[in-house]
Write a structure and sequence with these properties.
170 residues; alpha+beta; 2 domains; 5-stranded antiparallel β-sheet; 3-stranded antiparallel β-sheet; 4 helices; 8 strands; globular
């Protein structure tokens, strides 16, 4: 049996401890998963998409989008409906944009807080209607954007919030 030097044993132990610390910290580096509010700060969020698209008859498409642009916070919504698939921009039946107050932007972020983003994956389920959720922030490097709410309750609150904002949209 071969002896392991004290130096080698120390280096191996340090590597194991570092790996364990990264896993305990939420796997941020190992698994590409980040928590909104901790690893993804409010001031860094610049774009969020929430899209539901059904391929049933009649097909229906709903997108809510929140953006931070040039010091302004915006909410956009778009509904597409028709009797054919795929629905295109020409099938838009309702759309609008609303500039959000600081309070409304804070509420938006509160609903995302605690949720996680992970590396994007392609959905292999045919006919999956979503929702498809993507969060972009300054420094996201274009890989880790697929969002998941902390709970189903927060997702439902978010949908209700979007309907309230939609009603306020001119």
């Amino acid at each position: 049996m071969r002896k392991i030097s004290a130096k080698r044993c120390f280096l191996l132990s340090a590597a194991v401890l570092l790996t364990a610390a990264l896993v305990i910290a939420g796997g941020i580096m190992l698994f590409g998963k980040k928590t909104v509010g901790k690893a993804v700060k409010k001031e860094k969020v610049c774009d969020f998409y929430y899209t539901v698209s059904t391929s049933t008859f009649p097909p229906h498409f709903q997108r809510y989008r929140f953006t931070a642009e040039g010091g302004k916070y915006l909410f956009r919504h778009e509904t597409r409906e028709g009797d054919h698939i795929p629905l295109t921009e020409a099938d838009t039946t309702v759309s609008g944009t609303l500039e959000l107050t600081e309070e409304q932007w804070n509420r938006f972020f509160e609903l995302l807080e605690g949720g996680t983003v992970r590396n994007r994956t392609e959905s292999l389920d045919s006919g999956y209607k979503g929702p498809f959720l993507y969060l972009y922030w300054t420094g996201d490097r274009g890989k880790c954007q697929q969002f998941e709410f902390e709970s189903y309750g927060k997702q439902k609150e978010f949908e209700e919030f979007c309907l309230e904002l939609k009603e306020l949209t001119p």
